[in-house]
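Technical annex, item 7. During the second reporting period the consortium partners agreed on a shared format for inverse folding records so that results from different sites could be compared directly. Each record opens with the tokenized structure and is followed by the designed sequence. A conforming record, contributed by the partner at site C, is shown below for reference.
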């Protein structure tokens, strides 16, 4: 993890919590001190120097995330070194603008993310479609969404709703709350119906995992 701004710091900590061995790199000693107890290695160095990165055996990493925010030139040089000199299999770059994203792609970045833009798109989608809990972009114009079951579907079987023919979307799974008899008991995990059948009936609290084109998904009932 190269660059420990808000995004880089949060990502490094989450990766470490999930069991990844994280090397956190930044030029600022204060940021290194802040994260040193949360990751495997935290080191202050200049990532625009190939020798400095090699000193920490960065070339052995499975993936490098370049999240240098304010110094675009340093982010570019670091990306080139990681891809060309160290020949890392995967380099992910954080871009602040679409132009920066395009440049990162042109110099060989395997993936480019724009957290602020993605967060704005997600919030916009949630505000426009309050029943959507989460979504994942599959490609240009296609998405998987977690959708609170529309009231129009409640009490009907999947055969009666006929999602594929009527709405041109596919139902992947149903996530259903499991009620417990004792309110004091630990909350039970949701029931996941991973291969719904035509006779499965939709219940009011159900969350539907659906895939389809953005146009088709936008035509689903919202109420």
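Designed sequence (site C submission):
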């Amino acid at each position: 993890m190269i660059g420990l701004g808000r995004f880089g710091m949060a990502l490094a900590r989450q990766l470490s919590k999930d069991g990844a061995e994280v090397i956190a790199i930044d030029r600022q000693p204060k940021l290194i001190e802040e994260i040193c107890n949360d990751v495997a290695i935290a080191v202050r160095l200049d990532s625009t120097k190939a020798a400095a990165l090699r000193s920490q055996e960065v070339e052995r990493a499975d993936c490098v995330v370049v999240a240098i925010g304010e110094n675009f030139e340093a982010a570019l040089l670091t990306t080139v070194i990681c891809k060309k000199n160290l020949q890392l299999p995967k380099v992910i770059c954080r871009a602040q603008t679409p132009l920066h994203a395009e440049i990162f792609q042109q110099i060989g970045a395997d993936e480019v993310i724009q957290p602020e833009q993605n967060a704005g798109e997600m919030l916009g989608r949630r505000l426009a479609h309050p029943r959507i809990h989460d979504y994942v972009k599959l490609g240009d114009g296609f998405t998987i969404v977690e959708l609170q079951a529309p009231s129009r579907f409640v009490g009907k079987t999947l055969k009666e709703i006929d999602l594929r023919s009527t709405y041109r979307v596919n139902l992947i799974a149903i996530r259903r709350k499991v009620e417990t008899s004792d309110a004091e008991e630990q909350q039970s995990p949701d029931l996941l119906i991973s291969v719904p059948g035509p006779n499965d009936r939709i219940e009011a609290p159900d969350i539907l995992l659906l895939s389809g084109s953005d146009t088709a998904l936008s035509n689903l009932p919202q109420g």
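The first strand starts at residue 23 and ends at 26. Residues 34 and 40 are 13 Å apart (CA to CA). All partners now use this format for quarterly exchanges.
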